[in-house]
Specification:
198 residues, alpha/beta, Aconitase, domain 4, four-stranded antiparallel β-sheet, four-stranded parallel β-sheet, 8 helices
Length: 198
């Protein structure tokens, strides 16, 4: 997993509440267990018309938001079914941070496991970030110091220390396990000596 330290981007505003995982990645794109290629289905029903043509009014189809790595969204983001494809699709598009007033618990947890930082801020702060989200106003996410720097305004945010450690060091569940590789190897060696029949 790619470490997350600081991130600077023009944020893409998505002022919708209750964006569920089916809106993030519709069911027809769930036939794969690969984490790549899912950007094509991200927000598919909003990004494309029925003929598959890009909707020029959708924020992620407009420059410079096509390259945004920060999404500012409404409350209860990621609600609905617990599909892990939702953070996979966001990450495949290039989104590394979502800022919203609240999240579905399962989506929130899945973000951390896949290298995305979900930040919960009070509604008025999200509204302020959404209002200044234009092509001239990049913001910086500083995970180490837990700050969002938006011009002359700085917002503090909370993050669980363990999850922060994992993001800063690029550790997913497998990476965390491999940190104990020496202990695992030592245990396996000892077990082989004590129980050679296993």
């Amino acid at each position: 997993m790619q470490p997350f330290t600081t991130l600077t981007s023009i944020p893409a505003p998505l002022p919708l509440i209750n964006v569920d995982t089916d809106m993030i990645i519709p069911k027809q794109f769930l036939r794969t267990i690969k984490r790549t290629g899912l950007a094509a289905g991200l927000f598919y029903e909003m990004r494309f018309d029925k003929n598959g043509n890009k909707n020029p009014d959708f924020i992620l189809n407009r420059e410079p938001y096509t390259a945004s790595s920060i999404l500012v969204a409404g409350a209860n983001f990621g609600c609905g079914s617990s599909r892990e494809h939702a953070p996979w699709a966001l990450l495949d598009f290039g989104i590394r941070c979502v800022i919203a007033p609240s999240y579905s618990d399962i989506f929130f947890n899945n973000c951390f496991k896949n290298g995305i930082l979900p930040i919960a801020l009070p509604q008025e702060q999200v509204d302020a970030l959404m209002a200044r989200a234009d092509e001239k106003n990049a913001i910086t996410i500083d995970l180490k110091n837990q700050k969002i720097i938006a011009g002359n305004t700085v917002y503090d945010f909370e993050v669980d220390p363990f999850r922060k450690h994992c993001l800063l060091n690029g550790l997913d569940d497998i990476g965390l396990t491999l940190e104990k590789e020496n202990f695992i190897a030592s245990y396996e060696d000892q077990r082989s000596k004590e129980r050679p029949w296993l």
